[in-house]
Prior knowledge:
Keywords: Flavoprotein, Oxidoreductase
Organism: Sphaerisporangium dianthi
Protein name: NADH:flavin oxidoreductase
Structural class: alpha/beta
Distance between the termini: 41 Å
Domain NADH:flavin oxidoreductase/NADH oxidase N-terminal: 5-321
Oligomer: single chain
Amino acid sequence: MSVSDLFEPLGLLHGPAMKNRFMLAPLTNQQSEHDGSASDFDQDWIGQVAQGGYALIQTGAATVEAGGKAYERQLGIHSDEHLPGLTEMAASIREGGGLSAVQLHHAGHRARPELGGIPAPASSSTVPGIKALTTEQVERIRDSFIMAAKRAQQAGFDGVSLHGAFGWILSEFMSPLLNDRTDKYGGSTENRARLTIEVIEGIRRACGPRLQIGWRLSVERYGLLLEELRDITAEILDRELIDYLDLALWDSAQIVREGAFHGQTMLSVFTNLPRKGVRVGAAGNITSAQRAGRLLDEGCDFVLIGRAGILQRNFPQKVHDNPLHQSPALPVRAQYLRTGGLSERFINHMRGWQGFVQRFSV
């Protein structure tokens, strides 16, 4: 395939088709109001990327419960009070010609009490002094995801994406290291996947056939087992429970270092699965037009743009105009980001990403 194939449309199981193969990755940026309401900075950011040529734009991680907070100034979708700002964001994306999705998030055991978060571990041994969630509390959080999806639909978003990566609650429950439960949400692989599947199925029942459902999956750290996650993913794809799978890889070209898939690319472990009508994409160091195009050859249906989209909000348009486009080399000066339109809040967040912003730059 060539770079031009990135601009072919892509149908999804539910709702409208993507106009091309570019999806903006969910980028937490710590620029919302302290209560989770979308700020003017959020609206400005969404307005910029909405004009950048993306087929689908995801928001950053949005809390489905106030207690599930992981970051200062994290976007929220746990209250009807968040609806005005979310509605404006959805409208901005729609006006730019793209599809929209809210990433639904709960920090689980990683919730931060100093920010008002309430740690919600699957196991009593994970966070000192904090008991594991009861079955009823797990079911409450499940229902909070479903209610948040209904709010996203009410706000005019085309879909939602479940944050099942990086040890947050859905990922945590998948992990045999972090989940030693003995109820229906622990023990077997099937039981540890139950929360994720119940959330997906509940959203579909509550929101109907038009809402698009994505699932972000990571396979590293937090005790996650690649072989188990592949089996769970195979079931979800076979049952066509989601519209798209978002593989959150630190590097889309990384190699499996051990286990049954040693020597294979991490990407191929999942792209080789039968997927029926589900679309599969990957994020991870996609900073050039050529790399984005090669990912289609490697089995992806679409690509997720993260760092390159922060550097240049119109990355898809730049690829369209120049099939040899390459993102600026990292690190960059803060002034480069500022001139490009990033807020000081967003820039300060990016200072926490190793090697992104030059140290001591202004």
